[in-house]
Amino acid sequence: MPLVLEQEGVFLQLASGEMDGKTGPIQTFTPISSFFGTVQKGTRIQITAKEGYWKLLYLVKANINIDMESAEKYQLVVFEKENEDIIICAEEDSTLLFLSAEPIEEPIAAKDNFVMNSMEEIEEAMANAAAGKFGRLTYKFHIKMKEAYTLLPLINKEAAQRYELAIEGQTSRIEYKETATHSYSARKSGG
Fold it and tell me: Can you spell out the DSSP letters for the chain?
């Protein structure tokens, strides 16, 4: 990924969009610029983003000043759309993620892991997901037999239908039995 805002103490990689005459490798459906990386203690950078775009800064590891205001790790800073220039001063070595995107200006509905334009679309998407129309992921764990007994009580009925365990080199399928105490077992299924 191309480096942007190149200067001493700055290592920021452009993931998507355009900046400093460079283009990030991730293609998006709407204009989104994103970069991530590190800024060393005592370093000052200026980010110039497009006016009218949403701008977000997520602080993975940080103690910084943004336009003369303090921010710390795990904070998400949302900037005004009218703000073009953002000045960051790192008070300690910092890791950050910056996103800038053109507003879509559409209604938003959200529930669980779904974001759509209406609750009707959400319900349809949830039904499609439950029916497997978005595909399925198979998760495999490689664990030792005694670790299996620690893991099994944490798996619910739905998860048990999808997960496979490789216990001591043997591929096993998790069985879920509906009882008053919910019992789980791993059984050998080959391999």
Answer: --EES-STTEEEEEEESEETTEE-SB--SS-EEEEEEEE-TT-EEEEE--TTSEEEEEEEE-EEEETTEEEETT-EEEE-TT--EEEEEESS-EEEEEEEE-------EEETTEEESSHHHHHHHHHHHHTTTT----EEEEE-HHHHHHHGGG--HHHHTTEEEEETTEEEEEEEE--TT-EEEEEE---
By DSSP bridging, strand 163-167 and strand 139-143 are parallel
Alpha carbon of residue 140 to chain centroid: 21
Q: What is the residue whose two structure tokens read 């670790």? A: 147
**For the segment 111-141, what is each residue's pLDDT rounded down to a tens digit?**
888 889 999 999 999 998 888 887 766 555 4
Output b/e per residue, 161-185; b: 16+ Cβ within 10 A: eebbbebeeeebebebeeeeeeebe
Please tell me the predicted confidence (pLDDT) of residue 100: 93
Q: Name residues of the chain where pLDDT drops below 70.
A: 136-191
